[in-house]
Predict the structure of Probable dual-specificity RNA methyltransferase RlmN.
Amino acid sequence: MEYSMNNASLIDLKNLTLEELTEFLAGMGKERFRARQIMRWMYGRLAQDFEAMSDLSKELRSQLSQRARISHLVPETVEESQDGTRKYLFRLEDGETVETVRIPMEDHRCTLCISTQVGCAMGCVFCHTGSFGLVRHLAPAEIVNQVCAAMAEAPVNNIVLMGMGEPLHNLDNVVKALQILYTPEGFDFSPRKVTLSTAGLVPEMLELGRRIRVNLAVSLNATTDEVRNRLMPINRRYPLAELMKACREYPLQPRQRITFEYILIRDTNDSEQDARRLVKLLHGIKAKVNLIPYNEHPASPFKAPAEESVSRFQGYLLDRGMVAVRRASKGQDIAAACGQLKGKLTAAQSRQSSVDSSSPEHSSKRGNR
Ligand code: SF4
């Protein structure tokens, strides 16, 4: 089976969309409605085995356990920041690790930031995960199981695919995971509550728009190809003009906007000319800009922007009628940004005690993408 992870003869039902589960059960001669029932158990009630599914006959439960299994994740470590941000590290069945971050919002709601790959191939220079390179894609089950594990602890209101990895580099599995998240009998997330962040894989962005509804965030971080090539190597393949064209073509619902993440780095992308170019770049796009001042740290060549440049930059955008929000970094004291906890473990495992990989490598959770 394509996604079986432990035992090749058992299919992990968490890898299946409702349609696929229905087909799987039809292959066993079972009724269609059983798929909805099982979805409800796996995601609505977070059941981890067939035994718990008390409205299925004993016979069906036993048949299922001979052919299938239900995977789940248990956090290996959980760190909590002073601001309430919680970072979970999950060990996968093959020993790899991913992290997930729960970010409390002002209105007592919470956003869950999930990973889609182990490592990442995009190599953005401001990102710790990028420095590991890509190890592998996550299966749909491994993506949705991050949500299951967090939900087992407390409700989750919004989901952002903004953790480790470039979601569009793992498009098929990500689309499946979104379908599972949206299934009414499962988590029943509204697509309005889910945001996918990309570094700018243009063809996949357009395909995503054709295949499924989801809010789109683009990690922009520069207004010229010269600077963006330096910060984000993907720009050499899909330069700004192509990226902006794809954004203009991305299907949006009424009142929906594309979020542009912009990490402000001193003397790199924080000038008034940058603000002016940004307004031009986003002309005609229903956009919202998240401005994230970079958090400098000793191991990074980049510097935090001066307070006046952040205000000037934001003011310039606001004066031109743009939606521009300054984002506060969350969970800095626990390094709640993609790759940092993994970095810490890797360092510990290789006994490089002199490496302090817990120091903040990123500007913020959002600043990674
Ligand atoms: S910022 Fe995102 S896309 Fe870039 S290297 Fe890091 S995880 Fe990958």
Remarks:
- Residues 75-368 form a domain with the TIM Barrel fold (CATH 3.20.20.70).
- Confidence is low (pLDDT under 50) at residues 1-5, 337-369.
- The radius of gyration is 21 Å.
